[in-house]
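Continued from yesterday's entry.
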Amino acid sequence: MTSLPGDSDKDGSAPESGPIVCARCGARTHGPQPTWTCSVEHGTHRYFCDNCSREHLRAIEGRLDSAWW
């Protein structure tokens, strides 16, 4: 699943407040970044920056949890 960081969930809940942090490398952003990836793992939204998304594209496409990569 890919979406813009900060997009609301399908249930209409509000987007997270504050900076969005890459779950892999810790990079931060303060606004929507169309190259970031959003993953839902065990019911939790995890965001990955464009560099981490590119580096782990095959694992993301294979729907492997980030713990595998």
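--- second protein ---
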Amino acid sequence: MDAKLSLTLELTLRLGEADARAISEVSGENTVITAWNNRLVALTRMGLLTERKVGKTKFYSPAVKGMSYGK
């Protein structure tokens, strides 16, 4: 897994559930929200995150309850 996907997964796990905007805000990086969204979709396709839609916003959370990263 590349560094950007690893960071996205780590931030999502830290927040518990997040959308691309929340990940962007906590990352402190100057990265467009679309890039974060693409990473979240990639992690979902890998089976690491699940997705739920509320209106037009997609929220992502760990696929396995209690999942941690790098600990």
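The chain has one domain: 3-62. Residues 3-15 form the longest helix (13 residues). Will compare against the first tomorrow.
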